[in-house]
Specification:
Blueprint: H1 4-12, H2 16-38, H3 41-58, H4 68-93, H5 95-100, H6 124-134, H7 139-150, H8 155-162, H9 166-184, H10 189-199
Helix pairs in contact: 1-2, 2-3, 2-4, 3-4, 4-8, 6-9, 7-8, 7-9, 8-9
């Protein structure tokens, strides 16, 4: 069963076999998207399971007004953003502990050494810093950048996933790139200087 619409219709009827087929088709791509947000393999794995449980539970409500892939990515993005909001809320509630308890387990900085499956081994360190910088973006800028620049989705598909126009997504990506450049110059000030010196 390779036709996605038929697959989803079967899932809506309770077919676990069809769910497994859809999982095999999308698991890797969805996982890559999730880890771009979470920067943690265990969290991405949990969210991946959550995404497919949601697909199983809500397949009967799918209206077929968008493609199945768009719907799946939209679920993944929403799960990721919800996860980050909860995580940030927990951090804020724990900030006084980290301020007043010397040996607090609360990390002061996010680890930059997670492994993204789409990034070559020799580029992992730079990728870690890039994803740390991505955290500073607004939700819409972050999502537009991850979908188009990290996952390589066409702008039109990213727009459908985000319920935005293609022009709005293009603008979000441009702003994200400008903000990332500014943020990354904090980590690589010498790169900015060398560019300035050669332009003189």
């Amino acid at each position: 069963m390779t036709d996605e619409n038929s697959c989803l219709q079967a899932i809506a009827q309770g077919s676990e076999e069809a769910l497994e087929q859809l999982y095999l088709l999308y698991a890797d791509r969805v996982y890559n998207t999730l880890i771009s947000y979470t920067k943690n393999a265990e969290d991405a794995e949990e969210l991946l399971q959550d995404v497919f449980v949601t697909i199983y539970n809500t397949a009967s409500g799918f209206q077929y007004q968008s493609s199945v892939s768009t719907w799946i990515y939209r679920i993944a993005v929403n799960k990721s953003l919800d996860f980050l909001r909860k995580k940030n809320s927990q951090k804020r509630s724990g900030i006084f502990t980290s301020l007043y308890v010397k040996d607090s387990a609360e990390p002061k900085y996010e680890a930059a050494d997670f492994v993204h499956p789409g990034v070559k081994l020799e580029n992992q360190e730079d990728a870690g810093l890039l994803f740390r910088a991505i955290d500073a973006l607004s939700d819409n800028q972050r999502t537009a950048y991850i979908l188009t620049q990290v996952e390589g989705l066409p702008q039109k598909e990213a727009a459908a996933i985000m319920n935005q126009s293609a022009k709005a997504v293009e603008s979000l990506v441009q702003r994200a790139k400008a903000n990332l450049k500014q943020e990354l110059e904090k980590y690589f000030p010498e790169r900015g200087k060398s560019k300035n010196s050669t332009s003189k």
